[in-house]
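Intended use. Records like the one below are meant for learning the mapping from a protein sequence to its folded structure. Do not use them to infer anything beyond what is encoded.
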Amino acid sequence: MTAFTLYPAIDLKGGRVVRLKRGDMDQATVYGEDPVAQAAAFARQGFAWVHVVDLDGAFAGKPANEAAVRAILAAAPIPVQLGGGIRGMATVEAWLAAGVARVILGSAAVKDPDFARAACRAFPGRIAVGIDARGGMVATEGWAETSTVSARDLALGFEDAGAAAIIYTDIDRDGMLGGVNLDATVALARALTTPVIASGGVASIADLRALRAVAGEGVAGVIIGRALYDGRIDPTEALALG
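Structure written out for the chain above:
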């Protein structure tokens, strides 16, 4: 069976666990004051990874929730995938040295692709490229800006760089519980040899089943946020999909 990984999400804003709607920092729902406890809970439930995003860092362009991330790294018994505010090689190296299993480069992949490709080559299998799209075009700076680069073209530019995965997020669906953009995700996965991790809009176990069914097309996993926190997806049932 083709590998398919579920990544429960911990989004950090001011050290707290939150979820946003369409990436809007003014539409943040607080789900917890203790991100370490949340990471531990995901590990107990059986998840093999945890996906952590420094939201403040994504907007600031540099790490902003460092204490919370380091606390998660110190306590979490499962690998951590981290994004948000990582714009230079020194920051990549520092986070990997601190214990992050996989670093996500988002805005940097658009604004400084030479650096992003160099990071992928320097740390093969440990760098994911985060492609966050609005209407098919890549958004940057915590989704505050929309570029003139298409998600497909950006992803193709990393085909030979050794990226661990492309994390594809449909911003218009993120945090809205309206269902994942299956067609766009599969189309991107078919165009690439790099594995694609789906993100944005996951609302139910049906979304997970639909994505699991196309794992053979190159969809290697999915990030789950609000649907887990709201109890719309049962962890045991989700993990049983394999």
